[in-house]
Amino acid sequence: MQDRIQLVVNEREADGTRVARRLRREGLIPGVIYGVGHVTSISIDPHVLRAAMSGEQGTHAVFDVVFEGKKRAHHAVIQDMQLDAVRQTVQHVDLREVRLNDPIETSVAVQLEGTAPGVKAGGVLDIVTREVRVKGLPGDIPEHLTVVIGALELGDVARIADVAVPDGITVLDDPEEVVCSIIPPRGAEVEEEAEAVEGEEGAAEPELVGKKEAGEEEA
Q1: What is residue 186's three-state secondary structure?
Q2: Domain 5-98 carries which CATH code?
Q3: Which of 56, 82, 86, 200 is the most exposed place for a label (fewest CB within 10 A)?
Q4: Mind listing the pLDDT tens digit for each residue in 154-211?
């Protein structure tokens, strides 16, 4: 279990578009923290949030959320972040209080490790799945999971079952779901089809010759 990071936030006015816009103009990030039976509107300094997410677990870290001027810490994780479509800056953040001994479900990014021989041979790496749903204790959720593709040849696929999963984490998605595949280049597909056609024509020749000879004998 990783060390938790303190995240200092400020309680703010009830949620609303005008308030959120004003906070962004002031250089702050509006957000909320969901507790058991209550929701509290907050604002966060973007530098503080960025520093908190720079740890080993990244956006999946368990934070000790502390309201400015108070001592009590609320264990919480990031439930959702809204990003600006152009600048990719955080526009809104949702935090969710958690119990450290109760498993949670969340999505974790999948990273590819290695270079596939099939790509070196001219194939195209087609990424199908970029994240998977997992379940585990809040402090055990990794920033990402890894799948090694260093042995994938042309036409091969990597599935969720091939993803390396640490102890204490359960993957909830279908293990047969494809993570990525190596698509053969178009030229290779055309050549294979041409070879298959030639093979079929070649196999048919003896039969035609046999029929002709039989006909000649009858004549």
Answers
A1: helix
A2: 2.40.240.10
A3: 86
A4: 999 999 999 999 999 999 999 999 999 999 987 655 455 445 445 555 555 555 455 4
